[in-house]
Amino acid sequence: MIFSSAVLANPPCVCLPRKFPVRCSSLPATAASQLRSTQFDLKTYWTTLIAEIDQNLEKAITVKYPEQIYESMRYSVLAKGTKRAPPVMCVAACELFGVNRIAAFPTACALEMVHAASLIHDDLPCMDDDPSRRGQPSNHTVYGVDIAILAGDALFPLGFQHIVSHTPPHLVPEPRVLRVIAEIARAVGSTGMAAGQFLDLEGEPNLVEFVQEKKFGEMSECSAVCGGFLAGADDDEIQSLRRYGRAVGVLYQVVDDILEAKAQTPRDEEKKKKKGKSYVAFSGVEKAMEVAEELRAKAKEELDRFKKYGDNVLPLYSFIDYAADREFSVVDSR
Question: Which of 142, 168, 171, 254 is most buried as measured by Cβ atoms within 10 A of its Cβ?
Answer without folding.
Answer: 254
